[in-house]
Every structure is written in C-alpha cells, then in structure tokens.
Amino acid sequence: MLIQLKNVRLIHQTSPLHNHLVNITVSDGVVTEIEKKGKAGKTAKSEIFQDGLLIESANDVCVSLGWVDVLADYCEPGYEHKETLASGIATAAAAGFTDVFVAPNTKPATANKSSVQFIKEQANSAAIRLHPLGAVTQNIEGTSLAEMMDMRSAGAIAFSDGWKPVQNAGLLAKALEYVKAFKGCIIQIPVDQSLSSGGLMNESDVSTSMGMPGIPYLAETLIVHRDLELLKYTDSKLHITGISTAESVDMVRKAKANGLNVTCSVSPYHLIFTEEILRKYDATYKVNPPLRSETDRVALAEGVKDGTIDCIASHHRPQDWDAKVKEFEYALEGIAMQESMFPALWHHLHQNLPVETLVATLSTNPNRIFNIENQISVGNEACLTLFTTSETTNKQSIKSKAFNNPCKGMELKGKVLGIINKHKIVLNGR
Fold first, then answer.
1. Digit-coded pLDDT (tens) for 282-330
2. Does residue 144 sit in helix, strand or coil?
3. 65-369 domain in CATH 3.40.47.10?
4. Could you tell me which of 124, 126, 127, 110 has the C-alpha nearest to residue 73?
5. Could you state, in order of their start, the residue ranges of all structural domains in the chain?
6. What class has domain 2-64+377-391+410-427?
7. Which SS3 state, helix, strand or coil, does residue 4 take?
8. Helix 218-234 vs helix 246-257: crossing angle, to nearest 10
C-alpha cells in the first residue's frame, strides 16, 4: 500500500523540518521519503493519496507524530455497557490517537499477567496500540502490591490504581521502590479520599451558594505534597495525572527544578471548564478531582504553555445514561470526551497556546516520558496523526458508547482527519 501526503505542514519540534511544508511517502507502512517543500503558509493546498486515489483534500493539513493518551477507561471486562475495547479503539482512532494507556479499573481489575495480555491482544489487528496500565495493588484494593514484575513482562506500560489512587503512604513507597528495578513508573491521580469523600464539587463560594458539599483544595495538594516527598525519598519515577489546582502546578514546577523525576498531566476538561458550569446542576460535569476556579484553570493553561505540565490526558471515563441522569448526589463521576479532545482544546485555547505546544503534550512528551519508540524518520514505521487547525468539527454522532460527552454536537474549531499507524490508514468519514 502506497500513501502520499503532499504539502502537509509538519508539526514536530524535534525535527529540523518542523513547521515546514513537506511531502511524505509511506510504502507498506514505512516512511520512505520526507521531502521539504518550503516554509508553511496558510493557503497551501494539501492532498492525501492512497494507491494513487485522492481520498482527502483540505487546506492547512498538519501532520505530527502519533498522539498518545496517558489515561483512558475502556471498561472491558466487566462494564461493557459503558464502553468496550472495540468501541474504545474506534474512539481513539477518530480522536487522532495511535497509542492509548488503558485504565486498570475493570472487573476483574488489570492486576495480573493474563489481564494485561488480554487487553493487548484486542488491538492486534487495529490501527492503534493499547498499553495496559497494571494495577499497583492487588485487585485495586490498596492493601498489598500486585504482581508488577509479571505485568511488566507482559507489556504493562506503567502502574496505577487509576480512579482509586493509592492512599497508603507506606504501600506507595514500596511500589515506588519496586518499580526502580525495571525503571518503571507509577501514575497517580491526586485525590485524598478521606478528604474528598462526600464532596460533590470544588469547595468554594460557588458550592456554598449552591448548597453543595465541597471537595477542598487540600484533598489534592496534600496528596501531591505527600507523593512528591515519597518520590524524593525513593528516588524513583512518578507521573501525576489530572492535577487541577494552581498550587499543584507550582509544587510540580518546584519539584522539577529540584531534580525530582516527576512529570504530570492535566485533563482537557480542567483546561476548558470551571466550577461555574455546575450552576446548571448538570451531572455531566461531575468529576474528581473536581472542576476548579478560573484562577486554577488559567494556572493550568500556563503550566502547559511553560512546560511544567508535560501531557494532556483525556481521562476518558464513559458512563451510561442511568449513571448521569439522576440527582447530582447519586450521579457517577467522569467525563468521556476523548473523541472531542483536540477540537475542544484548540477551540478554547488557540489564542494563547501555540499548536506545536499542544501537539507536544500529545505526542513527543508522552513518547519521551514512557519510552515509546515512535518517531518520524525515513526507514521507520509510520506513526502519524493528521489534523487541521482551520476546519471545524461538529459531530452529532460519535464512536464511543458513552453518554457523558459534553462536546457532542458543538461547533468547534479544529479537526482530526485521521491516523496512519501499524501499516494502516484510518480517515474520519471514510
């Protein structure tokens, strides 16, 4: 199969051809030629050919290293009514992701070698790669360590208890020590469950005015401080995902300056929405960590811009209709906007965030942090995401089974055109 990308803008900051128009030829899944055409301009016409047939044409087509989602929940096995691995794979491809880290919060949990192998095998014939996150603790119960070495040998990319982050400091310290043996990484969502329990939204004047029990900043900042101290003590590797407060950004910034091996990510919805949207009492926006203030949202965006925040992880957490359409108190947590992630981010942040910075959080940064060997160079397997910043997205139907995507049907600036990966090409609408 021959694929030719003509007059596409390369967005890849580590390449000498970054921000230039190029022709890229892919033959049987391998990049065989990258030809420089000139400095990128806004009016350049781009074309994509497959086996000599024009299958997509648009202005301002950009190409980057394939995007990586550091945390998404595909619910299988155990919760297939919310999402399946098959629907998750289709969602990821439509969203422009070539690689997805799959949350371990299934039933049974991804806590042993066979469960890791099961997830990886489901994507064998797909255009994306699934990277299982192995549980830190047995059955994600937070009492004893899981079989991390076995899961690593089976292909677990990193280790996390996902939506139920490790609460026991001694156990987390042991986990951080343990993964050093194979240069592994622990991923934590910063939630102190003893402080967040019973809370429904950010604790603030807004929650008070609405009569809603709040989740204090301390429920996040205390666990970030604790985990950074444990990291310093163990000299291991930690990735904090889903930070939501200005203070957390500042703590990570200082920890990096002090030489700790820490990285972090933020969800798209914490960069876009604030607690003010909850005045509608719409449980779609019920998440933990909760949506915070505008001051926090701005600090998070600035953290992305200055490199303190390394990645943007979808935190795709599908829920069905019954889980969300009920009293706010009883609704389940989570937003599922993986498929809308790029257009939603670009639409809301493009005035202050360069496209190369946004793309780096989705591609080169997670590749570097988690030692994924994708690259754009002649002789290597093509792993590419195609998108445009000038066209708009307005999806009335989505690939995901999830009910809780707040961006469905919105007119958003920016569009994912497709992916080329694993000797396959998937184009949206084709």
1. 999 999 999 999 999 999 999 999 999 999 999 999 999 999 999 999 9
2. coil
3. no
4. 110
5. 2-64+377-391+410-427, 65-369
6. mainly beta
7. strand
8. 10
